[in-house]
Amino acid sequence: MIPFGPRLIGQTEKALNRVLQRILEHHDLGEPEWVTLRLAQDRRPAGSLAEFVAGESHYPYAVDIVAGLHARGLLREDALTEEGRLLVARVTAAVDHQVGHLWSAIPDDQATSAALALNHLLSGCRQIVAGDVQPTPATRRMRTTSEAAGETLPDA
Q1: Quick one: which of 13, 51, 74, 154 could link to 84 by a disulfide (CB 3.0–4.6 Å)?
Q2: CA 93 to CA 23: how far, in whole Å?
């Protein structure tokens, strides 16, 4: 078992991303376009979609992504068109078909603990990227089950 840490998170993200990539290929979409469609679906209408996508995803070419999705008829006035909504629904259903059983097999208490840990990491990383926090060697790191049991693990 891979202990909780950067390696486990990275390998999980890469595996899930590969599943998503295979599905997106069938719809002639790349990850940046998919992320933009999801952000268009979820965003509150303040400012332009390109500005919102650039801020959330850090894609320096967000304007081009949004323009391409407008040209494909998936966005209109920075909102999903009916075709865009249907595409998002199809891709979401395909992802759920592939990996939904993996998510649902995780007991609720473990899912809650994982969500707390990952949200902690996400929040901290966002602060670091924004320049609000400078990482130091003294930065507290989450303890793994092995560490709690008294074993020490090398830093990743």
Answers
A1: 74
A2: 10
CA pair distance 40, 78, nearest whole angstrom: 7
Q: Output 69-75 pairs: Cβ under 8 A, ≥24 positions apart.
A: 69/33, 69/36, 69/37, 69/40, 74/37, 75/37, 75/40, 75/49
Degrees, nearest 5: CA angle 129-134-140 = 105
Strands 75-76 and 79-80, sheet pairing: antiparallel
Indicate the SS3 state at residue 20: helix
54 alpha-carbon distance from chain centroid: 14
- Of 46, 20, 29, nearest to 84 (Cα)? 29
Per-residue pLDDT of the chain in tens (156 residues, 90 and over written 9): 999 999 999 999 999 999 999 999 999 999 999 999 999 998 776 788 999 999 888 889 999 999 999 999 999 988 999 999 999 999 999 999 999 999 999 999 999 999 999 999 989 988 888 886 665 664 555 444 444 444 444 444
